């Protein structure tokens, strides 16, 4: 047992039979972190003399109590999921990704409330993973009317915990979420068991990070992005690996960003080849030329392929 001033033993005469944690103040006895399975309708023998304090949804025994106390905890389902929101799309059109988006949508729509659907888009930095995942999430949103939630693990300042991050996205800050891992997983399972929600998770760092979520059953969907191949999850999730764009959509992207008449057909093809079909590089290079109409495109192209100058050249500014 622990009091507000630090760890300590229960006061004489106090007996707590409970699998949870306890916190006592002023000689009282508090039962905190009692699982619903342990406490719901079960007698808990308590001797207490004084006031008690409980946190994180625990049960506090206050006053002077002796004998059996019947503890009833609120069901995890009583928590209200907060309003959902997906970020807006930065690119009104995605070039050359129609097949990948269609494959992901087939998985998300085929579930139709009958079970969990999981799609993870993998690929190198800047290849367009987040854009593709967001597009398919927005297109499938009507299939998940209980809400769509965005979790960006790249914004985390510490070690990323996917279970905790999802709970914080689903629930408002009050009441506080449970601290214990088993309680967090129990809350996540009961929440997702009957809710058709879509979870968009950016920057999944490992297969292990996903396994706990994949153990949860329910009519929800997970759409993720990762720089890691995640090959060990084949068969458990639909893995969509993004590579460089082919020549035709690469050139189409360059023309759309640079503007009509800024580049000749030959210059457009050369720029696409110089950027090796990498969507972010193509966008930056075309935007650089669009904002600098006096820059000679033929002189700019060699700078992109020059290993000593390419990083500086690929700055839109």
Which helices and strands appear, and what pairs or packs with what?
Elements: E1 2-3, E2 6-7, E3 21-24, E4 29-32, H1 36-39, E5 42-49, E6 59-61, E7 64-71, H2 98-111, E8 117-122, H3 129-139, E9 147-152, H4 162-170, H5 181-192, E10 197-202, H6 207-214, E11 221-226, E12 238-241, H7 247-258, H8 265-274, H9 279-291, H10 297-305, H11 310-313
Parallel strand pairs: 1-3, 8-11, 8-12, 9-10, 10-11
Antiparallel strand pairs: 1-2, 3-4, 4-6, 5-7
Helix pairs in contact: 2-3, 4-5, 7-8, 7-9, 8-10
Descriptive account of the structure:
With 317 residues, this protein is of the alpha/beta class. It folds into three domains: 2-73, no CATH class; 98-241, Rossmann fold, CATH 3.40.50.300; 247-313. Helix content is 33%, strand content 19%. The protein contains eleven helices and twelve strands. The chain has helices at 36-39, 98-111, 129-139, 162-170, 181-192, 207-214, 247-258, 265-274, 279-291, 297-305, 310-313; strands at 2-3, 6-7, 21-24, 29-32, 42-49, 59-61, 64-71, 117-122, 147-152, 197-202, 221-226, 238-241. A five-stranded mixed β-sheet has the order 2-1-3-4-6, with no helix packed on it. Helix 7 packs parallel to helix 9 (279-291). The protein starts with a strand and ends with a helix.
């Amino acid at each position: 047992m622990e009091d507000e001033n630090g760890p300590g033993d229960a006061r004489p005469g106090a007996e707590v039979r409970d699998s949870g944690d306890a916190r006592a103040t002023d000689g009282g006895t508090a039962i905190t972190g009692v699982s619903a399975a342990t406490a719901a309708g079960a007698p808990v023998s308590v001797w207490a003399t004084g006031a008690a304090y409980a946190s994180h949804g625990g049960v506090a025994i206050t006053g002077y109590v002796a004998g059996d106390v019947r503890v009833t905890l609120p069901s995890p389902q009583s928590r209200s999921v907060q309003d959902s929101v997906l970020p807006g799309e930065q690119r009104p059109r995605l070039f050359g990704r129609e097949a990948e988006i269609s494959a992901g949508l087939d998985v998300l729509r085929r579930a139709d409330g009958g079970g969990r659907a999981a799609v993870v888009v993998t690929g190198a930095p800047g290849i367009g993973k987040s854009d593709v995942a967001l597009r398919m999430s927005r297109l499938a949103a009507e299939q998940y009317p209980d809400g769509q939630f965005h979790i960006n693990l790249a914004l985390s300042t510490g070690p990323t915990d996917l279970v905790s991050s999802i709970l914080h996205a689903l629930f408002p800050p009050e009441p506080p979420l449970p601290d214990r891992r088993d309680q967090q997983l129990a809350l996540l399972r009961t929440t997702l068991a009957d809710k058709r929600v879509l979870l968009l998770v950016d920057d999944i760092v490992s297969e292990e990070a996903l396994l706990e979520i994949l153990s949860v059953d329910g009519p929800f969907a997970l759409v993720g992005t990762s720089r890691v191949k995640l090959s060990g999850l084949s068969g458990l999730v639909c893995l969509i690996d993004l590579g460089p764009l082919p020549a035709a959509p690469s050139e189409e992207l360059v023309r759309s960003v640079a503007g009509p008449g800024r580049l000749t057909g030959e210059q457009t093809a050369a720029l696409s080849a110089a950027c090796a079909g990498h969507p972010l590089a193509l966008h930056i290079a075309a935007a650089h030329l669009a904002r600098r109409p006096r820059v000679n495109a033929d002189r700019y192209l060699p700078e992109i392929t020059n290993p000593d100058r390419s990083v500086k050249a690929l700055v839109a500014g």
